[in-house]
User: Which sequence fits this backbone?
């Protein structure tokens, strides 16, 4: 078996796999941040003291700025209305609101949530192009009085980037979520407003609230939005956040009513300009207004939109990059959600199918009168390929020596350098032949053993595996049926008393053996395990022996036998004990080879789907099941865990955790049933929750790595795993360890 030393530096395929995983996580984090704050924290502070807030601010007008560092409030001029809209843009309602404003030739000032801007930039461009004004309403719609200074800065900056990417502008207008009138300012939020004022922002409050978000009725909305006779007003409506049908019905009636009373409509900047002109005419001078546009010419020519600034080149491109990333997330997440649904149905379907068929298989094969045919009592050949197995070979051959079935043992030494053949010969077993060959690989060693075999039935096992005394006899009994060409045995993990060993033990019992029962009943067994399998010698020779085309020679030969018309079955009572990888590194290498080798074998036999008759059963049934259950479903199964984590962070931690525990419970029940069928001790199932958190994720990465290797046309060589020889010779009738 040719060996190669693994590189300490990750190869390009590993890097590609990790980059794909990183990209997926980044997309999901971005999408989650767009939709909700981590932990779904939507706390709102109420009832806080405002002792540090100047009375002139609390009792002043709704427009708060800090020219020269001093707080100043402004009111909307008499018979003037500033229509403000919060929480958009919304794909369903904002466009309709804009249509109403355009039909009535009035502007609006929209305070936008940055995450919504990122998702629906076209609506923002429509707002700005239609002569409306926009302001910042934070990026994630949270109460800023709970947030750190850096969080406040980030919320504002991210929204400005979104505005730049959407419409090429930034704004100097700001409205905090959960703040309507000036008396919403308290000791906690006051420093926030002072800081924003120092940065040139005008904080916009209201003095008239339509309360349309409560949906009190169209007439009530109009009445609540109507200011006292002749007074100006900053009026609050909403273009998002729920059903806005009443808002849409009330808005045109309200505009017509106010116009009939002699009111005019303007933006926040327009109201500020009018207030300053009035003060100037009264001889009070025109104070420097906070939020003055960066481009004076723009302010002079378009005073109603003086709050808009052209985004500089850097901000513009950063904003476009943000929108591009959001677009990727917006397109990716629905697709992932659909895949998750398919994967979830497939996983549950697989569990259901395995349980039903495994139960049926158990009942059929364990009936007292069940027989395969005439008892097989003649001698058989046992082939043991070995390469540097000095730790295990004595146990392996010793277990065969106690076989209750007559056998010849053929040890094919594949160029060992550690004295493996000498150890074998020193045992003095009368029915043992040692065949030496140069190191050419496991497939070549097995083929050599088949050629050397004296009997028509050959049993193949690994050099680190031990058999029970009855194993060979039980394994070869299905050959009493002349249609059977190969038999899969029941491989058990011998070194299961470690964490990694216990994880693999659960996998062997629940996955491999339940699978084999299902495939056996469907007559499309995909793999005879290398640790324990039996073949008709003439069937193996007829299909060309063990192929070296793939790393999974066991899967390759099994499919080839199916296509040649032979039946492949499972002998559950023929047990073999194998030493599973003892470290994560060895486990990775083994499963990487298995996974990639299976893909190679499936690709090699892809034309089996067009085979006809009995020989085409694997192609019609087995191939689709193996592709679905062993490649596609496991490849996308991480979505279940990733979406669970996503929901815990961004949606509802408790509900998501309960859902994950429910899935774990279903798997635990399936595993318990599998353990019952195999008469295994249930105590190992205590390791299952940890297996789901750690071991399963490793298997996901292995499969992704294998898919990347397959997609890039990579090739692997056989890799020798380090053995310790901890699995000794079992005694007759051993059930569990």
Assistant:
């Amino acid at each position: 078996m040719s060996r190669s030393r693994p590189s300490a530096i990750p190869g390009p395929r590993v890097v590609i796999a990790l980059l794909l995983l990183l990209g997926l996580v980044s997309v999901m984090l971005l999408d989650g941040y767009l939709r909700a704050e981590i932990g779904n924290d939507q706390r709102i502070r109420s009832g806080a003291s405002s002792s540090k807030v100047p009375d002139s601010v609390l009792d002043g007008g709704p427009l708060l700025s800090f020219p020269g560092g001093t707080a100043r409030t402004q009111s909307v001029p008499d018979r003037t209305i500033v229509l403000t809209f919060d929480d958009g843009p919304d794909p369903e309602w904002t466009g309709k609101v804009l249509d109403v404003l355009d039909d009535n030739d009035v502007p609006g000032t929209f305070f936008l949530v940055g995450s919504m801007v990122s998702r629906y930039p076209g609506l923002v461009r429509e707002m700005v192009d239609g002569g409306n004004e926009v302001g910042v309403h934070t990026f994630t719609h949270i109460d800023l009085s709970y947030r750190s200074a850096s969080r406040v800065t980030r919320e504002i900056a991210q929204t400005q980037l979104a505005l730049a990417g959407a419409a090429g502008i930034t704004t100097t207008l700001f409205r905090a979520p959960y703040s309507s009138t000036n008396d919403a300012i308290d000791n906690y939020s006051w420093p926030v407003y002072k800081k924003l004022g120092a940065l040139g922002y005008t904080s916009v409050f209201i003095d008239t609230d339509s309360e349309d978000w409560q949906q009190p009725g169209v007439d009530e909305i109009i009445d609540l939005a109507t200011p006292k006779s002749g007074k100006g007003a900053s009026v609050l409506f909403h273009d998002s956040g729920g059903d806005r049908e009443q808002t849409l019905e009330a808005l045109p009636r309200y505009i017509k009513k106010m116009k009939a009373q002699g009111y005019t409509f303007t933006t926040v900047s327009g109201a500020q300009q009018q207030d300053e002109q009035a003060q100037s005419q009264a001889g009070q001078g025109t104070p420097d207004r906070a939020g003055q546009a960066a481009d004076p010419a723009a302010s002079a020519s378009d005073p109603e939109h003086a709050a808009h600034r052209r985004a500089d080149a850097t901000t513009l491109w950063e904003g476009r990059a943000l929108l591009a990333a959001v677009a990727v997330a917006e397109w990716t997440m629905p697709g992932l959600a659909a895949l998750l649904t398919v994967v979830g149905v497939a996983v549950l379907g697989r569990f259901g199918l395995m349980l039903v068929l495994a139960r049926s298989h158990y009942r059929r094969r364990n009936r007292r009168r069940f027989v395969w045919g005439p008892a097989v009592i003649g001698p058989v050949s046992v082939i043991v390929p070995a390469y540097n197995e000095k730790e295990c070979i004595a146990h392996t051959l010793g277990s065969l020596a106690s076989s209750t079935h007559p056998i010849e043992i053929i040890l094919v030494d594949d160029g060992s350098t550690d004295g493996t053949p000498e150890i074998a010969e020193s045992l003095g077993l009368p029915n043992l032949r040692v065949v030496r060959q140069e190191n050419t690989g496991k497939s070549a060693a097995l083929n050599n053993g088949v050629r050397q075999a004296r009997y028509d039935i050959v049993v193949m096992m690994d050099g680190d595996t031990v058999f029970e005394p009855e194993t060979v006899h039980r394994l070869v009994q299905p050959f009493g049926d002349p249609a059977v060409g190969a038999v899969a045995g029941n491989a058990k993990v011998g070194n299961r008393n470690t964490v990694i060993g216990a994880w693999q033990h659960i996998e062997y019992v629940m996955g491999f053996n339940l699978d084999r029962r299902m495939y056996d009943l469907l007559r499309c067994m995909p793999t005879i395990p290398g640790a324990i399998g039996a073949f008709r010698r003439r069937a193996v020779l007829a299909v060309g022996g063990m192929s070296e085309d793939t790393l999974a020679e066991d899967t390759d030969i099994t499919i080839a036998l199916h296509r040649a018309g032979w039946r492949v079955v499972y002998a559950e009572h023929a047990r073999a004990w194998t030493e599973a990888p003892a470290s994560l590194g060895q486990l990775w290498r083994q499963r990487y080879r298995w996974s990639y080798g299976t893909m190679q074998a499936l690709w090699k036999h892809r034309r089996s789907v067009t085979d006809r008759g009995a020989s085409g059963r694997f192609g019609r049934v087995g191939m689709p099941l193996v592709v679905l259950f062993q490649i596609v479903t496991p490849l996308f199964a991480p979505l279940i865990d990733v979406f669970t984590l996503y929901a815990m962070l961004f949606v509802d931690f408790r509900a998501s955790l309960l859902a994950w525990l429910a899935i774990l419970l279903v798997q635990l029940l399936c595993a318990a049933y599998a353990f019952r069928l195999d008469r295994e001790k249930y105590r190992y199932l205590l390791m299952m929750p940890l297996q789901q958190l750690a071991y399963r994720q490793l298997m996901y990465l292995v499969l992704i790595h294998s898919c990347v290797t397959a997609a890039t046309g990579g090739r692997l060589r056989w890799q020798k795993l380090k053995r310790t020889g901890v699995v000794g010779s079992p005694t007759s009738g051993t059930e569990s360890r």
